[in-house]
Amino acid sequence: MPVAQALAGFQANVAQCDRLIANAHQLNAAGQSVLPEIDRQQITVAAFLNMFIAWETFLETVLSHLMSGAVTTNGNAPLKFASPANPEMAKKMVIGTMRYFDYGNHFTFKKIAEIYFDQGLPFKPPLDAVNGSLDDLRVMRNASAHISSTTQAALEALALRLLATPSVGIGLYSLLTAIDPTSATGGTIFETYKDTLLATAGAIAFG
């Protein structure tokens, strides 16, 4: 089943990102970090970006396969308004006359889902439920790609809201590895958003 395979692929990619971050923070017998801080920072930020790219790939894959006749993991076939011959044709339909389609932009993705599927199912309800988290992820994704006065200000504002403390000059690595004050298990900010994406992907795939 293409949708089940897409979900499994996303889960595997996220697990690999987890391993990258864990390996980057390994300690030696003396309790000191094996890697220097700059390496830990770059690996962690790269792992986050890889996770975001995997999320975009998941959405693109599931959308294109459902448009061309695949079913969700529970066996449902969503009511759709187009029937492309195959997933590649479905992707071309989504792009249309644009150069590309940004699957990481949840606002435009939900609009596309509503165009091609009745009520945007199975995408829109799970995405609506985590709309704020997806906003946050876009801020972090932009900060991982380039640093400017705009992206830095947005990152600082996000850190202030998430950590409830002034965070002037904070970098993405520091935010991702900070303990999430709302986590019941003492997890990091990265882990909170990772779990959100995994749960949302599961809900979309299930239909």
Notes on the structure:
It is a single chain. This protein has 207 residues and is mainly alpha-helical. It contains 9 helices and no strands. The longest helix is centred in the N-terminal third of the chain and has 31 residues, at 37-67. The protein is elongated and about 60 Å long.
In short:
The chain has 9 helices and no strands. It has 207 residues and is mostly helical. The chain is elongated, with a radius of gyration of 19 Å.
Per-chain topology:
Layout: H1 2-24, H2 37-67, H3 87-95, H4 106-116, H5 124-129, H6 131-145, H7 149-163, H8 172-177, H9 189-206
Tags for this entry?
mainly alpha; 207 residues
How much beta, percentage-wise? under 5%
Mean pLDDT: 96
Taking the sheet with the most strands, its summary is: none
Sketch the topology as an H/E string, one letter per element: HHHHHHHHH
Helix content: 55-70%
Bulk shape: elongated
How many strand segments?
0
- Which structural class is indicated by helix and strand composition? mainly alpha
Ranges where pLDDT stays below 50 over 5 or more residues in a row are none
Quickly count the helices.
9
- Radius of gyration (CA) equals 19 Å
N→C terminal distance: 14 Å
